[in-house]
Design brief:
The complex is a heterodimer. By secondary structure, chain A is an alpha+beta fold. Chain A has a single domain, classed as Lipoprotein localisation LolA/LolB/LppX (outer membrane lipoprotein receptor (LolB), chain A). Chain A has helices at residues 2-27, 30-38, 112-126, 129-135, 156-159, and strands at residues 42-52, 60-69, 73-80, 84-89, 92-97, 102-107, 136-143, 146-153, 162-170, 173-181, 186-195. Chain A starts with a helix and ends with a strand. In chain A, 26% of the residues are buried. Chain B is of the alpha+beta class. Chain B has a domain at 5-27 and 237-447 and 625-780: Multidrug efflux transporter AcrB transmembrane domain (Multidrug efflux transporter AcrB transmembrane fold, Up-down Bundle), CATH 1.20.1640.10. Helix content of chain B is 65%, strand content 8%. In chain B, α14 (306-323) runs antiparallel to α29 (716-738) and α27 (659-684) packs antiparallel against α30. In chain B, 47% of the residues are buried. Classes of the chains: A alpha+beta, B alpha+beta.
């Protein structure tokens, strides 16, 4: 009898917990993810980026700091191997290279491919699903504790360059961005030590 | 002195026939540059030539507004597609990538000939090593995908350097795949016509094509609300020809109709009306014929100015007709008034004559036209009209008006003090004004209406066409030496860009290097074996895949032997267009133009240019130069005007032999000029050169009234008739000049409004000041 009760209880609890779990899964989705990402007002973190390129026999490695300020400013400070700063604000993209003593400002709308690249990260950070879906077909896997967005480009021009972008994270943090290019090249950026 | 009537009419008839035959063979133009000063410096001459028929003159800027951005972009693409099929246009650019492919191919194939970076050290081990290391860093950027495709052929990144150099010019924003204004309200296109800007018929045809294709593209533009905006030199040429043509006809007709109505009301006889118009008509024919003979062609604006001749020339007949009293022959009347009339004609000629000396071909035409017209009109009044008038002709019975006018004038001197005070106030206003009195902007002389100038400025700003202010012009005998000079200047300018004296510049040598430069670049490429060797050393320990750069070795070897570029090599690319606008074949040689951007230190640029010591090179500061040019012309015109006024004074002194009387006559004219100037300043802000001419004409026209006032009347009846003739003559002048005040063409409305106001004031002030002076002289005698 005790066994039976225990078994029933287990089943009930199991059902209950299963129900609860199912309920959470249906409630947590792309909208919730975007909303929680959108609540982040600022974030900074260290990154290490490895680029596996067809023309190189070993991968390139870059590291430095990423700074995000809501809703549309993103800074990438490359420190190693040589310093370079990329700043994105609204639709202006500025690259400053102290070694080459060059600074260039691009208007994003002039360079659709670069814009698509940039928006994959920035729109995700900002939780701006509308912009994201303008450039990509978006697919979400996982749960709020560990999720992965898969972005496939909509525009043929972008499809020529990029096949797929994976952005993974937990709750409202992004910790890995993988870009798989059409030509077979690949880059992986791992972000650590994220703080507001 | 008085030839037989038959002879007079015969001579007049023959003269008129000759005039008509000359006019029948005359050519008529509407060239906009006629009312811009002739510029003496050769470098500026190049510019004026360009404005007339260069690439700049062929550009039509097109704006489409009044709808959502996607709809506007749709129309832009559709319109561009349609216009690209038309032979009238050499290019249609709306930001779509249609031509870019060909441009990039051209740059890619010829990168080693075009790149100024290719110098003997460029392919050394150390230089290659530096480039290869930089490449690794650049591969980290979002542009790595593109970079990877070109690096195997171009590890020294010549293509990127060329693209960056050419992309330095600011370009319009892109939205929905086409050019837009910054605020996104207007889609933008730039069309280049095949025909030169001065070929107005061809320009008109091209513009019609744009308009009709726009209507097709929008289906029904009224329904979508989309609006087409057009601007550019060709648009101006077409619309100002329309304006001038319209103004010439409209104002001459309106003035004629109004004057005719006035004369008809006065004389109540169509026959007298026709006789009254005879001197003017003869004068106008003679004026046009004289201009045609003297200048080879007649400007549309000269014809429009004919309206003023009606106002002035019809006066002579009025003086004659109104003054014939019953029982008097026309000849005896003429003998009586001729000395005064003659003096009036001569003073008018002094005034209009000043325009002959003006450095504007257009103004000189107006001067010749007016002088000829006035002389002929006066001569016809003097010798032909009396021959045509029947004996016992009386145009006007005595009427109450004359008596009423006499009474009015007798009370006029009471206004003397208020007039003096008003004149002093006006003088103070002009003298103490803080802002400059004169508009030294060349645009103020342009025959283009202000609204169109504003639209042009807006579209130009939208399109990012820099409002070129600084420009270096190098003049040379051959294309090769013009390009070589551009290269020397470019080297000097690059150093200045580094120092921050300017942001950038454009040079014809960037699109087509001189043959010498191309050869030296070919010579700077090492042999294949040497280059391979250098590359191997430079690649040591770098992570590039082995044999990655084999295509580079092959391309460099090809470049060493490839045929040199000439002008034809650029055909089919949009760069050809650019080159055509920067490297210009002239009648006696070549000119290279290097527009500068973001100049911070023009003195430094000037110093460097001077230090180069090569063929004639000039740094033009278009703003400063045109303002200086304008000031010079203004000073000249002020001098001429003073000379004209002095000539009028001298003429009066010689004729009247009394300084007192000369001053009496000049006083009301001076007051009229001062107060007219004050009214103009208060209403339009700044005065232009054309206003100055207008003020001089106030003296020329007004002197007639003053002279007749000054003349002693023989009787009360004579006084009444004098006053009546003056009043009607004045109305005619005000009509003739006044209608021009409604013209869109600046030269016409400036002169028209000045003389229209000044003529009324001259008459009123003459009545106030001279009548009083005459009374005083009566009292004293």
């Amino acid at each position: 009898m005790r066994c039976l009760r225990a078994a029933l209880l287990t089943i009930v609890l199991g059902l209950l917990s299963g129900n609860v779990a199912a309920q959470i899964v249906t409630e947590w989705g792309i909208a919730q993810l975007m909303q929680s990402l959108g609540q982040v007002k600022s974030a900074r973190g260290k990154f290490v980026e490895r680029k596996y390129l067809a023309i190189l026999s070993t991968p390139l490695e870059f590291s430095g700091t990423l700074i995000y300020t809501a809703p549309d400013r993103l800074e990438k400070h490359i420190l190693l191997p040589k310093p370079e700063t990329l700043v994105l604000e609204q639709d202006r993209f500025t690259i400053t290279n102290p070694t080459l003593q060059k600074s260039r400002t691009l208007t994003l709308t002039d360079y659709p491919v670069v814009q698509a690249f940039v928006e994959s990260i920035r729109s995700t950070l900002a939780g701006d699903l509308q912009t994201l879906t303008r450039f990509y077909h978006v697919n979400l896997e996982g749960n709020s504790g560990q999720w992965r967005l898969s972005l496939t480009p909509r525009e043929p021009a972008m499809q020529d360059v990029v096949r797929l972008i994976h952005i993974s994270g937990s709750t409202n943090r992004i910790d890995r961005i993988e870009i798989i290019e059409t030509q077979g090249d690949r880059s992986v950026m791992v972000i650590t030590g994220i703080a507001p | 002195m008085n030839p037989s009537p038959r002879l007079a009419i015969g001579i007049w008839f023959a003269f008129t026939l000759i005039c008509i035959s000359i006019i029948a063979g005359a050519t008529f133009t509407a060239d906009l540059s006629a009312f811009l000063p002739r510029s003496p410096a050769p470098a500026q001459q190049v510019l004026v030539e360009q404005l007339r028929n260069g690439v700049v003159s062929r550009l039509v800027l097109i704006g489409i507004e009044g709808d959502t951005p996607p709809a506007l972009a749709q129309t832009s693409k559709h319109l561009a597609q349609q216009l690209r099929r038309q032979a009238d246009f050499t290019s249609i650019n709306n930001g779509e990538n249609t031509g870019a492919q060909k441009d990039r191919e051209f740059l890619w194939r010829n990168r080693y000939l075009l790149s100024a970076a290719v110098v003997p050290d460029h392919f050394s081990v150390s230089s290659l090593r530096k480039m290869l290391e930089e490449n690794l860093q650049l591969l980290g950027s979002p542009a790595s995908a593109m970079l990877q495709r070109i690096l195997p052929n171009d590890p020294t990144r010549e293509l990127l350097g060329l693209i960056e150099q050419l992309a330095g010019q600011s370009r319009p924003e892109m939205r929905h795949g086409v050019w837009f204004s910054r605020n996104g309200e207007r889609a933008l296109l730039v069309a280049q016509t095949r025909a030169a800007g001065f070929d107005i018929d061809a320009q008109e045809h091209a513009l019609d094509l744009i308009r009709s294709n726009f209507s097709t593209a929008t289906g029904n533009s009224a329904a979508t609300g989309q609006k087409l905006l057009l601007t550019g030199p060709g648009v101006f040429a077409v619309s100002s020809r329309e304006n001038i043509k319209g103004d010439a006809w409209r104002f001459s007709l309106i003035a004629t109709a109004l004057v005719a109505a006035l004369l008809l009301a006065l004389y109540r006889s169509p026959k007298i009306l026709l006789l009254g118009l005879l001197p003017v008509a003869s004068g106008a024919l003679a004026g046009v014929a004289a201009v045609s003979l003297g200048f080879g062609s007649v400007h549309g604006i000269t014809l429009a100015f004919g309206a003023t001749l009606i106002g002035e020339g019809v006066d002579y007949a009025i003086y004659l007709f109104t003054r014939i009293t019953p029982g008097e022959t026309s000849r005896s009347t003429l003998t009586r008034i001729w000395p005064t009339l003659r003096l009036g004609v001569l003073t008018s000629i002094c005034g209009f004559g000043v325009m002959l000396f003006a450095d504007f071909p257009g103004l000189a035409q107006l001067g010749l036209f007016s002088i000829t017209g006035l002389i002929v009109a006066a001569a016809v009044t003097r010798w032909v009209l009396p021959a045509m008038l029947p004996p016992g002709f009386v145009a006007l019975e005595d009427s109450g008006i004359a008596a009423w006018l006499s009474a009015l004038v007798s009370r006029a001197p009471a206004w003397r003090m208020p007039l003096i005070i008003l004149s002093v106030c006006a003088l103070l206003l002009l003298a103490l004004r803080q802002e400059p009195l004169w508009n030294d902007n060349l645009g103020s002389l342009s025959p283009i209406p202000l609204s169109e100038q504003n639209l042009d400025g807006q579209l130009r700003a939208d399109i990012g066409a820099p409002d070129v202010r600084y420009l270096i012009v190098a003049i040379a005998d051959t294309q090769e030496s013009a390009l070589a000079a551009s290269e020397k200047i470019s080297t000097a300018l690059n150093a200045l860009v580094q120092q921050g004296a300017l942001q950038g510049f454009d040079s014809p040598a960037a699109y087509l290097p001189s043959l010498a430069a191309q050869r030296s670049r070919q010579a700077a490429i090492p042999s294949r074996a040497d280059l391979d060797n250098n590359l191997r050393q430079a690649l040591r320990d770098l992570p590039y895949r082995p044999d990655l750069f084999a295509p580079f070795l092959a391309d460099a070897e090809t470049a060493q032997k490839q045929p040199l570029l000439d002008r034809n090599s650029l055909q089919q690319t949009s760069l050809a267009l650019k080159l055509d606008s920067l490297l210009i074949k002239r009648n006696d040689g070549w000119a290279a133009m290097l527009p500068l951007r973001g100049v911070n230190d023009s003195d430094a640029v000037q110093r460097e240019i001077t230090r180069l010591k090569i063929t004639p090179v000039v740094l033009l500061d278009l703003k400063r130069d045109s303002e200086q040019l304008f000031q010079t012309f203004r000073h000249e015109m002020v001098t001429y005007s003073l000379a004209g006024a002095a000539a009028i004074g001298l003429l009066l002194l010689v004729s009247l032999r009394s300084l007192r009387r000369v001053l009496d006559i000049l006083a009301p004219l001076a007051a009229a000029v001062i107060i007219t100037a004050a009214i103009l300043v208060l209403s339009v802000g700044k005065l232009s050169l054309f206003h100055l001419i207008g003020l001089l004409l106030v003296v020329a026209v007004g002197s007639n009234y003053a002279l007749f006032f000054d003349r002693q009347a023989t009787s009360a009846q004579d006084l009444g008739r004098t006053l009546m003739s003056l009043l009607f003559a004045n109305w005619c002048a005000v009509i003739g000049f006044g209608v021009l005040a409604f013209s869109q063409v600046p030269v016409l409305y400036a002169i028209g409004s000045a003389v229209g106001i000044g003529a009324i004031l001259s008459l009123a002030f003459s009545a106030i000041l001279i009548a009083r002076a005459r009374n005083e002289s009566h009292d004293s005698s």
